[in-house]
Amino acid sequence: MTTHPDQPGSQPDAPATGGVVDVDGPVPGGAFDDHHPPDAALVGDCVHCGFCLPTCPTYVLWGEEMDSPRGRIYLMKEGLEGEPMSDSMVEHWDACLGCMACVTACPSGVQYDTLIEQTRAQVERRHERSRSDRALRRLIFEIFPHPRRLRLLRGPLRALQATGLDRRLRSTGLLDRISPQLAAMEGLAPPLGKPQPLPPHIPATGERRGVVGLLTGCVQGAFFPGVNAATARVLQAEGLDVVVPKAQGCCGALSAHNGREEEAQDYARRLVDTFEGTGVDHVVVNAAGCGSTMKEYAALLADDPAYAERAQHFADRVRDVSEVLDELGPVAVRHPVEATVAYHDACHLSHAQGVRAEPRRLLEAIPGVQLREIAESDLCCGSAGIYNILNPEPARELGDRKARNIVATGADLLVTANPGCLMQVASAIERSGHPMRLMHTVELLDASLSGRGLPVR
What we know:
It comes from Nocardioides aestuarii. The chain is α/β, with parallel strands linked by helices. The protein folds into four domains: 40-126, Alpha-helical ferredoxin (Fumarate Reductase Iron-sulfur Protein, Chain B, domain 2), CATH 1.10.1060.10; 131-188, no CATH class; 201-326, Rossmann fold (3-Layer(aba) Sandwich); 334-450, 3-Layer(aba) Sandwich (Rossmann fold). It is built from 25 helices and nine strands. The strands form two sheets. It has a five-stranded mixed β-sheet. A four-stranded parallel β-sheet has the order 7-6-8-9. Strand 8, helix 24 and strand 9 form a beta-alpha-beta unit. Helix 13 packs across helix 25, helix 19 crosses helix 21 (357-364) and helix 23 packs across helix 24. Mean pLDDT is 91; it is low at 1-12.
């Protein structure tokens, strides 16, 4: 297997991928087994045109053919045709952020999102990672998909932040020397306020226009409880009853995006069970990564006869909060909020779900808001679930690039729709030396509907 290094922005001669997959399934002894290998027909859809290259974060950073979508698809093709899974193959697949910008850009409709998830599930089953990599991944998945465990971390983190020990530890660089990945994890922690628990039922204000369930999430619920509270208030003000099941847990997004197929399926089944029988019209999500996975539950549970149909019914009801609010139209009065706003597209909202216009329309409808677009808006900020922990150096480069583009807008407020993006961009903005306020879309809407305006920093 050879790679083809090139300069960023160039369009090298690509390995031929389109229409040349010689097998219907994986060749025995090759990289993949028979359980949902990368779909040979989807691999054959890639015509190596190169439209994906300028949209791919890792290709933009390194100019390396095998770290582009079409290069990674070529490696999938090799694996299907009998090439054993190698460390080099896995490194290139691991380097993918899963941002899906290539899916938006592809004129041939290549389903790279499906292919990379199929491939990563194979990697997790068939590839032996290093001891340190296994330990780090185990630590991450023992913490982040568990809301209760995350809530237990709040106390120590708040104490560190209140005493300034977190900043002092960061300034020593000690954690960076011990483990850049752990240093990245610590540096991403947002300032923690007080918990804001929600009751199980929040009645609509005025005439009821519908009933929705609210996913409170893992990181969102523990680190950004104000976002959930603002979401509930906005939905309530727009005439929606809000149901908040207390038994809900992780949606499985982090597991699904990282190839932990069985774990993701278990989380999905539990969430389907939790919201069944609640009588909600929609399940509302305010975290882009969660929403994109929940909309794919039918595919995730397609092989489970007890859940396939139920998963489809569930997925059909999942909506990002901006979709619900945009579709309903406003009834609550918008009060002026004087702010120049840069809106950052979360990849799993814009590329994975195709939701771009709705949040912009909601923001533009707030009196006093001036909306400004960010250069290279389709390029990932480097968060990508847990990518910025597993791969801190390229994630930092992408974050700093995003911060420069945000600062260049001259906006005094950045708005986005995903907790991972909020943490990643906040860290990069702080490094840039040009501090600015960051908010979730619903927090700005909540500030307008309440008439209180932006909170004092």
